[in-house]
Amino acid sequence: xxxxxxxxxxxxxxxxxxxxxxxxSLLLGTALVAVIALATPLVMGRIMPSRPAQASAxxxxxxxxxxxxxxxxxxxxVSATQADTTTAEPDLASMRAAAQAQATADAETTPENDLMxxxxxxxxxxxxxxxxxxxxxxxxxxxxxxxxxxxxxPANNYAENTGSADLPPITAPASIEPAALRAAADAGDRFAQxxxxxxxxxxxxxxxxxxxxxxxxxRSAAQGFAPAQYRLGSLYEGGRGVDSxxxxxxxxxxxxxxxxxxxxxxxxxxxxxxxxxxxxxxAAAAHWFEEAAGRGxxxxxFNLGMLYARGLGVEQDFEQSYIWFSLAARSGDKDAxxxxxxxxxxxxxxxxxxLDDTIAAWAPVEIDxxxxxxxxxxxxxxxDPGPAITNPDVVxxxxxxxxxxxxxVGAPDGISGPKTREAVAAFERATGMxxxxxxxxxxxxxxxxxxx
Length: 452
Known about the structure:
With 452 residues, this protein is an all-alpha fold. It has a domain at 142-268 and 367-447: CATH 1.25.40.10. Helices cover 43% and strands 1% of the residues. It is built from 18 helices and 2 strands. A two-stranded parallel sheet has the order 1-2. Helix 9 (262-274) packs antiparallel against helix 10, helix 11 (298-310) runs antiparallel to helix 12 (318-329) and helix 11 (298-310) runs parallel beside helix 13 (334-344).
């Protein structure tokens, strides 16, 4: 998880962000229905590292981004009348034309077989370094908008250590500092075990070692820590540090999803819908996309809108499709805005007005903070989270992120006032970290570990 500061646009170009950007596109290859000429990429985003480069020609092709890719500014909602029809990647106009040409040439193709195995990735290769928290290069706090996408759930037993799992003991590498972190991990502290695994995954403090990282994630995951279960599932899916095993990936995603981890919900749904398991199961995909979408995950909202538009795993329902595309568009997703406008053509004005009222009143279900965000430094009651950051741009983005998670920060203004400090302290408590109440490198690293 990176722990970085935003100083200038130039710094954003030169330093890596919280997420390593990898993108793959998935198309529904034919028109939606006779009344809607819609062919849109289904964002079956994996919140995971990309697949190994030696994948077969039939498998998803990974598009490696430029290292200097810049995170977009916070995006406002794209209205139905102002939707931008031009997108950078993927090129929807070309995709729609190609999809409709294919539909004309092959009218017998079924919706299930139209689904390609390519996916657009929600990138996640976070940094987590308790030893080197600093604020030198925060470049990619996720795109945010003022819309609350998740309410605060209880800080449940994820904030408690349940003891060692029944796995052979291993020893943390001596190169990982401080010694207190190694000692806590060796003694079975699941948060410290996760932290060691994340450091080994990142490979900036020590040599990158996915095999050792998987071993540490496994020990944390076996004790019920949902973020570790998600990480282990992503390693099994990508074949990093372990043999690629989609059944094992599904198992760990399932455990984490049932514990409330949004990214695992989304990835599990993607496995079911993408055809990479033995059979496609759109009903299961729709269930887990809806769970994640209801907790504010934009790509899940987009995918759910697509499933409702196509009637895959759910009864075809253009009104539900319109709602979910609209919610995704509200977070600045241009593909979702275009798809919403396509669906709107099959709805009358009264229905659109009614649905817009529903969307305006929509509220997310609670997100369990501790099941989604891994803490840093819980192995030391006096852990130093780093110096307070007062950069207004950084503080503003933190305020918007905390607001999306359901915390009351007042009006986001880039100033760390009493409400912001209390919101930060509440987030720290929910994750099990010692309280500072300040915007600092540790907070940035933890908040930046996943899309919000």
